[in-house]
Amino acid sequence: LIFGKGSLASLTDELVALSPAKVLLVTIEPLLISLQPLIEKLQSNGLEILVDTSITQEPSFDDFKALMAKVSPFNSDVVLGIGGGSVLDIAKLVAAQLESEQSLEDIVGIGLLKGRKKKLICVPATSGTGSEASPNAILVDNKDNQKKGIISPFLVPDSVYVDPLLTMSVPPAITAATGLDALTHCLEAYTNKFAQPFIDMYAFEGMRLIAANIVTAVKNGADEEARTQVAMGSLLGGFCLGPVNTAGVHALSYPLGSMFHLAHGLSNALLLPYVMEFNIPAAPQRYADVALALGCSPGANPGETAFKGVEKIRELIKECGIPARLSELDIPQSAIPSMAEDAMKITRLLKNNPRLITLEDAIAIYTAAY
User: Which H/E stretch holds residue 264?
Assistant: First the structure.
């Protein structure tokens, strides 16, 4: 794991030293200009590069299968993912599926992937998903329009390069949504039913770094220090995903992505304060700790302190300029019951929530967020 401004340069050296014959680069069109020096250096050292920029939004099973049909004949030795969470998730799955006898459907779920034959390197270009440090990849199943998770230690990359300078060109709205997604990873890990002291350290520090720097990163994208702190917070959030993972906020956000194609980070930000309010009675001390990590002063008791944390999250959302209610987006209120039913299927995350969420609770949370 290499973290630091300009660390992308040492990635080139590592790849040249590895001397693979073929490298598949999965990235996005807007990054191609800044990645040109890396591509040219690899080519000048005799490496064959195939570049794919087909992943432009949250990917589906069909998107992945179309990409595999394109890249399987190339059969690279190394898969290099440089981009946001969707790009990194796809790169992780491609590395696992090349020369694999398992189909995509065989590996959906927890621990079903049997191995990976290709080297995998991930470079996040947004400060958000933490995919570079997690064993997760999330795709939308075209058959039922549900988000499905593939979770396996074989999806954890061999090498990760976090270069905050890569995030400098990310627009304010995406900086805000991805940053609040990373904050949610830390917050949901810290308040999780299965929270544990080792991950608490990462979660608490991640919340502290993001809360203190996200507004500056959104309003002044050229601020290298703010970008660096948010990138570190995002990485720490990624560390939380494997051992502890997320909970109710993420479970309820999934239908917003699969049904209305809302960006994942925005979906989480919209629901976060409402799920926090719902959960506080079940874990007041944990949510009081969250408030302190976010920079709030202590209240008279844990419950009072915890609600200061909810207000702080609302303040961050407002200052970052993101929508605070579902009604501000093209989501009909009539969709709430079916969204709630879909959310109830995400049991792998709901089981982590500190308070049981029933179908009626999910409807009430969506309604409050509307």
Answer: helix 264-279
Give the span between the Cα atoms of 239 and 135, in whole angstroms: 10
- Can you name the residues that pair with 148 across neighbouring β-strands? 139
Using alpha carbons, select from 34, 52, 50, 45 the residue that is nearest to residue 12: 45
pLDDT confidence of residue 14: 87
Question: In this structure, what DSSP letter does residue 228 have?
Answer: H
Task: State the Cα–Cα distance between residues 24 and 303, nearest whole angstrom.
Answer: 51
Residue range 42-70: mean pLDDT, rounded: 94
What distance lies between CA 143 and its chain's CA centroid?
A: 24
51 pLDDT band, cuts 50/70/90, is very high
Q: Average pLDDT, stretch 110-122? A: 96
The pairing of strands 136-141 and 146-151 is antiparallel
Using CB atoms within 10 Å of the CB of residue 141, give its burial: 0 to 12 exposed, 13 to 18 middle, 19+ buried: middle
Q: With H, G, I as helix, E, B as strand and everything else as coil, classify residue 246.
A: coil
Whether the model pTM is above 0.90: yes
E strands, 27-153, are: 48-52, 78-83, 109-110, 119-124, 136-141, 146-151
pLDDT higher for 57 or 32? 32
Instruction: With CA atoms as reference, report the closest residue to 206 among 267, 127, 275.
Output: 127
Q: Are 251 and 349 in contact (CB under 8 A)?
A: yes
Measured torsion, CA atoms of residues 74, 79, 83, 85, in degrees rounded to the nearest 10: 110
Angle at which helices 172-190 and 197-219 cross, to 10°? 160
